[in-house]
Design goal:
GMP Synthetase, Chain A, domain 3; 4-stranded mixed β-sheet; Rossmann fold
Length: 425
């Protein structure tokens, strides 16, 4: 059975010591790992120097493997058989499908279910799940594990399976207390609802898979009238944590995942509060895919956060410094997507936007297409946004005013919103 919630940091350390050895011994069965672990002494893994003899597994290593090599050389044959496959996030270009054993799934479901606890959701709540319900696991696992917490589920799926207009109708008719999905889709539904004169009423929202900046959080909570809890996971490991207090970072299930925060260049541990790259080892969900010291590409800070505030305070917190999100370089100026999103969403009059980098007559141009909320002077907002963008980024954009609901329709078929597009050849 999946582990009960640990009662102390000492208990977590005992679990980690036992399961780190089990994880390495499991990996030694893999043709991929066997030669890489020859010099590692499993009886001394609590010595940090010994643990660091294990090579870091990164995306480039997986990218170099064919499907056949991955399944033949990296993966193991579990005693209890394959239960299902989890689609990777596409880090290899051609996404891999990670096998999960039945035992893996016991831990996987519990890891997801803990996020409901952190959000304050439980028996009697009704969840509307708007994550895609296809080959990526997040939506269907959120829906499946809700039963362990006594939560009713409407398996709506994304806009590709249940059009956004119908989702809004279902939220009105079934009156869920909890909405679960991508933060970008939360914005789309809210904008579409406003265009139809509808108020979406839920108590809580849960998001995952996309960064949620303070400005984005404030906008989502204001338009929905509900508290947002963000969650964090990766397909290589599972759901790893959730916020217990908004904006302070994710409580990480360190009884299920051993995490390290290392300097990106030296790969030495950083001090608490310093930014480093996240390294993850699965302690239980490793019966087919033995991910040891997986480098996720996330840049984070680590905090013990041992404040005794509730049962999940037994876990430390990770906070994203900034995910590996992109940027535009327009006329020599770097425009971080996250910075631009924060800048625009801080204007309450703007409902949604799209940013495009274009080539116009040989010159690079930034075009911002915006939708304004009801009652706002769209022409005045366009002028103001252009002036503020020049002051902040030293770049004058083309600002285009769209009819409310235009972007929601265009984004309808996307799992993640294509809010930033580089159209230059």
């Amino acid at each position: 059975m999946p582990p009960a919630l640990p009662k102390s940091r000492a208990e977590i350390r005992r679990i980690q010591a036992e399961r780190k050895r089990a994880a390495v011994e499991q990996a030694m069965r893999s043709p991929f790992w066997r030669p890489r672990l020859e010099q590692v002494r499993v009886e001394r893994l609590e010595d940090p120097e010994e643990w660091r003899k294990i090579p870091i597994l990164d995306k480039d290593t997986l990218r170099a493997m064919s499907d056949e090599q991955f399944y033949r050389e990296f993966c193991l044959t579990p005693a209890d058989g394959i239960c299902e496959y989890w689609r990777s996030g596409g880090v290899t270009g051609q996404p891999l499908f990670y096998p999960r054993s039945y035992r893996d799934m016991e831990y996987g479901l519990e890891a997801f279910a803990r996020t409901y606890d952190c959000a304050g959701a439980g028996r009697g709540d009704r969840a509307h799940v708007s994550f895609p319900l296809g080959i990526h696991p997040v939506g269907q696992v959120f829906a499946r594990c809700a039963a362990s917490r006594g939560i009713t589920v409407n398996w709506a799926g994304s806009g590709t399976s249940t059009p956004s207009a119908l989702q809004i109708e279902l939220i009105q008719r079934l009156k869920p207390t909890l909405w679960i999905g991508m933060s970008s889709y939360a914005l789309h539904l809210a904008n579409l609802a406003e265009a139809r004169g509808v108020q979406l009423n839920v108590k809580r929202l849960m998001t995952s898979a996309e960064p949620v900046s303070p400005a984005k959080r404030e906008k989502i909570e204001r338009t929905w009238g509900a508290k947002l809890t963000d969650t964090f996971g990766m397909t290589e490991a599972g759901m790893m944590g959730a916020e217990d207090k908004p904006g302070l970072g994710f409580r990480i299930w360190t009884d299920m995942y051993f995490v390290e925060v290392l300097d990106a260049k030296s790969l030495e541990p950083v001090k608490e509060g310093e930014t480093g790259t996240l390294i993850v080892t699965s302690l239980f969900s490793n019966n087919v895919t033995p991910f040891l010291r997986w480098s996720s590409g996330d840049l984070v800070t680590y905090s013990e956060a041992d404040d005794g505030a509730g049962p999940y305070s037994v876990f430390p917190r990770l906070k994203h410094a900034h995910r590996t999100s992109g940027f535009f370089k327009v006329r020599g100026i770097n425009l971080g997507h996250q910075d631009l999103e924060d800048f625009i969403f801080r204007r309450h009059e703007i409902g949604d936007f799209r940013a495009e980098a274009l080539n116009d007559g040989g010159n690079d141009v930034l075009r911002l297409s915006i939708e304004c909320r009801r009652g706002a002077d769209g022409t005045a907002i366009c002028r103001l946004l252009a002036d503020e963008c020049k002051a902040k980024f030293e770049l004058v954009p083309q600002v285009v005013l769209l009819e409310t609901g235009t972007l929601a329709k265009e984004f309808e078929a996307n799992i993640k919103a294509s809010r930033f597009i580089d159209r230059r050849l």
